[in-house]
């Protein structure tokens, strides 16, 4: 009587294991518990807040108090709506640049050579700067009487100080200074997991360095790069302090987080702020989803480097 | 604030049962002026406050934090020192104890007349502790500007003649910037200086004209100061405090000068002490004693400081001579005698209520700062 | 030996790509030196209106900021928070990343999105309710609250960063360890751990940076004695009031130095590229 | 069979699929404690899959595994207490040779001194004394393989699974290691399941052979039986009956089931299966002798390969069939010689008997 | 030697060290176009290192490599145009079998249609038709190895380097692949350097054998020479002279240098080196025959292993020496038999001749 039942249970276990469900999934439990306990409730709270326009706010006066009034207000107002585009215009190039620039440099850093550790450290150091120092530094260094302009003037390349800050470029610079080391560190580490023998094998098949990189290293690195891009993109997308400090926060660098900040901390319209934040999350999710979807089509298995 | 249990004057003792530990959070830079007063109180009243902790924070995020504590019934902040921004946000969200209920315990502060008007902005939910007339003033480099503009029109003409040389910081991020913005309607004679949406047509068209000759709007006042110092700007917007203190600190050459525009009204500013709802009766009792102490003339004299909030005291009858020695020295060296004439000479106006201020900033962002105006 | 070296030299000389890359690196570093240098020089200057250097030198700005914010205490708190967040998020995140890297199971996508959200959604939305929850359970207002709140974005961050690293490791190695009788815990500590060190280091450094720089969640949950450096720094930058620029710069330098020390300590212990494969990288 | 730790391991209909394809298809096998079983079969037939299933590294698609009456197929590998040599070694890249070998002992919490001694013994056993401090990445292929062997046997597990453990060793070392494995097997009574592609190794080591083909068992039996009496044409082909001649069955020949002797055209052989009209005669290259004798035939020598004492010869019969011979006589291409083979060495299978994997063109 | 693309590859004193140790120590070798050279030697002797140096994957520590008079040791691997089968395969994990094999063609910019055809041919050649769309991680060990082979030869490079390319294949497939490699070598005239641990493979494939020991060349020569006339005791041991008997040289025996025949105790053998007072007689197990004859001795059979047609026998002489025999006669442990071995099959080396790697205890 009991035997077939046990057997059935075991067979079920085999079948589940075949679909990837086994004890390993227990490892997810702490993280899931953590997220559910500390994030899901606050998130749901914020989400439902975004559907409850604040009584008396401008939104309600204009668009009523329906659940989507805040979203409606956001998309109806071009000054708000355009922040999405402004933000993407900053974060996509910043994310792409950081990833693309870190690849060749990290690629150069494979192998052993003297001073490698020092160079690595120096390249990673900007990660420690923080937004404030970066912004203050950019303002001082690239400001109208900063060293850079001074140099350009003295050398005679320009005859008026060039304005590098308080515009799109200032913010982009700061996103690169803080994002590049981040991308570099990740890329370098992902690269270290790829077995150099594979490139050697490709070399014996007549592949030059570019082809080896293009066909062997890059595809094996791509899943890591996808994640790296997602993270730098997300960091760049939520840029706030530097968009205000070295940017042009009312104009060309009025990013979406400034709009959210404005709603939350100047107008104290938390439901509007939540709505903007949700829109922010949704836009990011679309970009990240596209990238991760692409990533899912890549080879993601062992790359020999660790085994 | 759902979880905050309300105290009534009846169940707040005159003096705390046990000496309290008071957590003070300052979101306005107010401690620079008042820390000395508080420290002295703690020293002389160990039975009331056994220990005080100070935290500095930025104003915008403060209401959220208090809200979180109140919703959880866990209010840990005993006293908040704030400017008008967080004050009014807190009033809107019903975060503050109604101090008017305890008016008898605070005595009757002998506010100066304009300070009294500023106190009204608190709507009974806070107590003004320092006051200054603020601005708008313009500060200029006498080496490059021989004759400062005396009217708004002259300023515009000067800016046109010297493009990129006039600067004021983005109002949302800057005291002098917002004072300049709020002062213009008076100077230009707008229909309703208290209604940025409907009553500021002259101001808005003036600013849109002016912006053509402005290079950019820094996000911090101090940047306009360094630009003035390094010569990339020749005239900037300022206030009394922002004139004296940076020169004292060495941010701006000591020799730079200030001027006012014709039709000047002071747009006054003040800072307040407020108590979050939900504090214990003991803490509230200690707070009330402390605030009362801070409003005594002897203590108020400390508000002269280094000219940061010049003059500073909110109550009558406080002179520089009562201020600490160091204060007197700084004011002596960097203060301006003309202020003593100007302050009584021009009418005073309270700054805009927070809501209108935010609306004005928003409008400024959209129409002036956004760069939509062709330069 | 000499031939080998010659080969290397010749290759270097032959490739314009190499020069381009190193050139770009040098350019980046120069800009960086300018940016950092300007701040450091200013923080030691008495006044610096224009000209190449300040008119005089002083270190008093450090003294004033240090005292004003009681930085000694703040640094200790920051360090405690940062280390706790790094350790806990790795301990919780790496196993989860492992499960996600190694298994495909129904509902994985939903879970992935749930893990992504804390990184995507700005703390504006969930900060206050999160703080409320923590205050309710008497966790906020002290160190534990700051740590827990910072873990919310940190754990998903670790998961995301670590997944590709784990995918890179050949599962056969784990199988071999299991055949030697190693249980899951041991596999994590002795097999995956060492192999994942570059990844965990990278993740740790990034979380450290994010945690030390995470203003909002920290502010909302901190008590008066559990403020971290960033709260002080943001205050000095963006709070109302007048502060000497040099004081702000001094604070920024202290912040950076603090992070730098942590980073260098981390890199001393583990080099992100030092790895098993390096043994294979003969020359 | 001295002191084996297990007494019976039963595999019941063990199957494992990858996607649609069954890599292992209903394997039934009972292994006794202390037995040495060799899995044989062509590349890709499911040998490694079978080992992985036994080890618990691959969940079964079907079937069950019982150890001494206890079902173990749901136990995780680390709780089965088996040892394994992986085909690709799977050494821990971040551990020295010594640490690799000692890992299992550490897991089993063997006392430090004891563990150190056992590791040193194992290192000596696989002759890696000079390399014990190196990391796997610094070892040659054969050295790595030896580490893998040492790592599995140092634990003296109840059951050892070895997946082609000697494939990267030179002949001399291979012989030595083979002797070692045999000795350890006997002295410790380790039950062993051994995958190899080396017939000689299988024959000399194993108590029983299991022949697999596309995941299905073809024959199970002691080496001598499998070698001399292959169950079907596939097994024959795999066990070295390289020559296959398809010939018509002579009418009236060997009709009775009991009658072993069959005449196919000019060949006389031994019947192994029921036959149709044509049948296949399978003959080993080394069963031919040069010179007249039973089943004599004339062949033209085409290719001659030196193989030490013997020569591998490719020749063609008058009928045009290619023959592989292995002879001691020195022949040269172009020679025409007579070769013969005893009828008991000519195995006759039905033409539709499962064939050995196709020869390449 | 039909149409080889290269005419001479010279290695001059090629050395490669790892740290202090020289893994390859002054290799001098000249390979002619179209030649098939096999590298042999015990595990860890530097075979793979030699191939890697040739391929350009390891910079030399010393020495030079010239191809048709042009120095190539400073050329990067991709400019040498050699093909290589790696000992651990080094397949590209992110490419299907087909893409792995076609990678080189893509690099060489071979026209798509042509490349596709050649890939399919190579896939068929290694019998992977059913698996061509799989990824390396989904293949069995032997299948992976076949991909590695196909990948190297599909390019028809001037020089192919193969590092134990058949080690993971079963006997039958190995024979087939061996034939294939030989055929390709001959029809395309590929010059081949081949590492193997399988003596038979080396003997049957190679034009020349190179024997390495601890990075140093021991003997270079055609298979027959190396097999029958090993240069020293090490080579003898490696080429299957498993039995080594250390015996005193009989006084007056074979004193003259030209005198090949030596008497050692009761054994008569053939001298290969100058001798001291004692010498070592090396004899292959398969050179013994059961029964009386030259050099007859009585031995006690101790262990018998079934090895198909033959038996591997371990026996002990009256003098207590262990002997390995390989005989067809069916013996059983405990038997006492007389065995003999022809004197020309007994090679006599000096006792201090470089010995084969020590046997394990
Ligand atoms: N990276 C390295 N660092 C140190 N020693 C090494 C390294 N690579 C190889 N060796 C050593 O060099 C010697 C020769 O190695 P090689 O791989 O050439 O041997 P092999 O002849 O191919 O052996 P096998 O038949 O076992 O593959 C070995 O003793 C090995 O341990
Ligand atoms: N992960 C996988 N996905 C799909 N097919 C697989 C996978 N692993 C193995 N296979 C297939 O299953 C079959 C059996 O593989 P297995 O590794 O058991 O062969 P094997 O008998 O060990 O062969 P070899 O002697 O070549 O090592 C092979 O055809 C192989 O291609
Ligand atoms: Mg296998
Ligand atoms: Mg090798």
From TrEMBL, chain A:
Gene3D superfamilies: MetI-like (1.10.3720.10). It comes from the Bacteria. It is found in: Cell membrane. Residues 84-291 form the ABC transmembrane type-1 domain. The chain crosses the membrane at residues 25-44, 90-107, 119-142, 168-194, 215-240, 270-292. InterPro entries: MetI-like, MetI-like_sf. Coiled coil: none annotated. The keyword Cytoplasm does not apply. Pfam families: BPD_transp_1 (PF00528). It is a multi-pass membrane protein. Keywords: Cell membrane, Membrane, Transmembrane, Transmembrane helix, Transport. Belongs to the binding-protein-dependent transport system permease family. CysTW subfamily. This is ABC transporter permease. It comes from Actinoallomurus acaciae.
UniProtKB/TrEMBL annotation, chain C:
The lineage of its organism: Bacteria, Bacillati, Actinomycetota, Actinomycetes, Streptosporangiales. Belongs to the binding-protein-dependent transport system permease family. The keyword Cell inner membrane applies. It comes from Actinoallomurus acaciae. It holds the Pfam family BPD_transp_1. It comes from the Bacteria. This is ABC transporter permease. Keywords: Cell inner membrane, Cell membrane, Membrane, Transmembrane, Transmembrane helix, Transport. It is found in: Cell inner membrane; Cell membrane.
From TrEMBL, chains D, E:
The keyword Transport applies. Pfam families: ABC_tran, TOBE_2. The keyword tRNA-binding does not apply. Residues 9-239 form the ABC transporter domain. InterPro entries: AAA+_ATPase, ABC_transporter-like_ATP-bd, ABC_transporter-like_CS, ABC_transpr_MalK/UgpC-like, Mo/tungstate-bd_C_term_dom, NA-bd_OB-fold, P-loop_NTPase, Transp-assoc_OB_typ2. It comes from the Bacteria. GO terms for molecular function: ATP binding. Keywords: ATP-binding, Nucleotide-binding, Transport. This is ABC transporter ATP-binding protein.
